[in-house]
Amino acid sequence: MPAIKLKNAKWNLVAGIVMLILGVIIWFNPFGTMLALAAYIGIGFMLAGVFYVMASLDIKSGWYLLVGVLDLLVGLILLFNLGVTAASLPVILALWCLTVGVVQIIGAFEIKKYGLPWGWSAIMGAAGVIFGLIILAYPMVGAVTISTVTGLYAVMFGILQLIEYYMSRNSYSILIERR
Q1: Which of 25, 73, 101, 110 could bond 129 through an S-S bridge, CB–CB 3.0 to 4.6 Å?
Q2: Cα dist from 178 to 2, 124, 171, whole Å
Q3: Distance between CA atoms of residues 14 and 36, nearest Å
Q4: pTM of the model
């Protein structure tokens, strides 16, 4: 099992860094157009999707694969339909957050079986569900608010991925030392 922890940990690190960078990019462009925001998010979703697919191969998780495929699909939709995406970005983002949040909560309980730190994945999933519900409740939120809240979610997601990476890495070290 320690080999699984090490392989999983590296993808948490990469996903965390990508999401932190995405969040900072979004924050420092609050008055950018919704087209630019759709493109940034589309690229971020595609990168995160690739990393989730790679993580699913490491730990043989169908749930991680599902999140990765969803991220890739949403990223492609955002990038190839920027005009439509800009107009409907709040609803698209909310639906993505709800879907991925639910899948992450389910996936957290799956990775618990491997003895991996699962609590952070459950927290990320719950945050995604809450974030999605808030956006659906207020779909006419302006670009500045969406970019700020989206940036906050991406940064929070990135930080929690990094925490999960360090906890997995520490768990791996402790298991090796016990042998």
Answers
A1: 101
A2: 11, 30, 11
A3: 23
A4: 0.48
